Amino acid sequence: MKDFLEKVAALARDGQVFATATVVARQAPVSAHLGDRAIVFADGRMEGFVGGACSREIIRQQAIEVLRVRHARLVSIRPDAEAASTDPEHVVVPMTCASEGAVDVYVEPFVPKRRVVVVGATPVADAVARTALSAHYDVVQVVDASERRDVGEAAPSALTVTTLDSLGTVVGNLPGQTAFVVASQGHYDEEALAVALRSGAEYVGLVASKKRGGTIKSFLEGSGVPNVSTLRFPAGLDLGARTAPEVALSILAEIVQLRPSDTLKPVGGVASHDAAVEPTPIPAESSTAIDPVCGMTVQTAGARHTADLDGVTYFFCCPSCRAKFLREPARFLAARP
Length: 337
Known about the structure:
Layout: H1 2-13, E1 18-27, E2 37-41, E3 46-48, H2 53-69, E4 73-78, E5 90-94, E6 102-110, E7 115-119, H3 123-134, E8 138-143, H4 148-154, E9 160-163, H5 167-170, E10 178-182, H6 189-199, E11 203-206, H7 210-222, H8 244-257, E12 264-267, E13 270-273, E14 288-290, E15 297-299, E16 305-309, E17 312-316, H9 319-327, H10 329-334
Helix pairs in contact: 3-8
């Protein structure tokens, strides 16, 4: 217990993205015991123990989903469940392996705060920074070097103020969980937008009229800047905002609107999320396959249970599913969608 908590604390201090999984209830026969724990990293790697092959893969996938939506959930693995549930806080997953037991696992995400980078030393930029701070975002305000002292002296203590020449490093290793709001009122909009769009940030908004925004967009396209089609201008939802604080509120509302959806749908026997924006921390090179016997999602990298048939490799969650498949491959392949 002590070693586990020390490991979690160290990872959190380092700003790592990970989830913890803790067995909170069990019904024999299962191999997990109350209090068994595991850490699941952003790439799907797991340290610790929360059950056998079936439970392990289910919890691995659920941890990945939890990291994506940033909300903890209770995962109940049941042999009598007919289908995955649609409650984002309590997911019930069918136990498709041979075990007749059941287990409940609490899965909790540990992720850095979402970051909002506000560019400019204007009333709207200041209002966006303060509104984002009140919503518990990690906020960085980027200004020209000549503006830094004035902005820094008036800034709240929780606000980080930096200069335009460091903008390229501000995003750090979380481009998919960073929102840019460019509000310099023409002083260095193009320069900041070029960096923001190249970063792959989940949101890039420009505080400008439709006419000026269109002109800037054309300039960026002509300059070969990628992702220009994702630029939002005028930034913010159409709330009829007039004052700087109201404009800031409309922009934060638009950023919040882009969060991953909490609506579940069953995929391969494991509950998954359907989101318009997917800042998933899983590396692009990772891949999964569906066990043709039980329908479970299996990580293909380092998979232990595989079978080659007619030049195709099939992946399985456990030896039992592999054996069933090899006995009657035609039966299971015919049942595949």
